[in-house]
TrEMBL record:
PANTHER family: SLR1441 PROTEIN. Residues 16-50 form a coiled coil. InterPro entries: Restrct_endonuc-II-like (IPR011335). This is DUF3782 domain-containing protein.
Length: 194
């Protein structure tokens, strides 16, 4: 059977229509794939936010655990260092105007105070933030303006370089040692006072 020009044009027309349909189907599949990618991205973002929240809560719980490890030891530890402190005030929050201050533990007597920052893992940034906190503590807590204020940082994990940094900045360094908490500073340590 001979192929005529009309047959060729008809076949070309069918081929063009088939390509158009294939292109429409490909476009539809691309749109569906894009929609699925966007949905997957949205789900991953939601899961990431939930995970961040859970990790934040876990970090807070770990910080609370460390604070509960440090809390019973601080009076004894500072008394052993010759500071006759006898009062422990946990979780202090101060707000004066636009400025605020949060203190994990405040160990005091009538003439001295030790402002203690507790972290699960102590970093140099934590030390720097605590030094800023100490610099404004007396101004924001005038009740303690007459006492000699000192600073301390405590952590479940205290890297040696962070401990040395805090020591050089005049802070007591408390860390977990076995089942108890100890002051890492040597006997020659002289704390900075505010």
């Amino acid at each position: 059977m001979a192929t005529t020009a009309d047959d060729v044009w008809r076949l070309l027309g069918e081929l063009i229509e088939a390509q158009k349909e294939a292109r429409k189907e490909t476009d539809r599949q691309f749109q569906e794939t894009d929609r699925r990618f966007q949905e997957t991205e949205r789900l991953l973002k939601e899961q990431s936010q939930r995970l961040d929240q859970q990790l934040g809560r876990l970090g807070n719980r770990l910080g609370e655990f460390v604070e509960w490890q440090v809390r019973p030891a601080v009076l004894r530890l500072f008394q052993e260092r010759g500071l006759d402190v006898h009062e422990l005030l946990p979780d202090i929050s101060v707000q004066r105007g636009q400025e605020g201050l949060e203190i994990d533990l405040l160990v005091v007597n009538s003439t001295a105070a030790v402002v203690v920052e507790v972290k699960s893992q102590l970093t140099q940034g934590d030390v720097d933030e605590h030094l800023e906190r100490l610099a404004k503590s007396k101004r924001l807590m005038p009740r303690y303006s007459d006492v000699q204020a000192m600073g301390a940082v405590a952590g479940l994990v205290v890297p040696p370089e962070v401990a040395r940094y805090a020591y050089r900045r005049g802070l007591f360094v408390l860390a977990q040692s076995g089942d108890s908490v100890v002051i890492l500073n040597d006997a020659q340590f002289q704390p900075q006072t505010w």
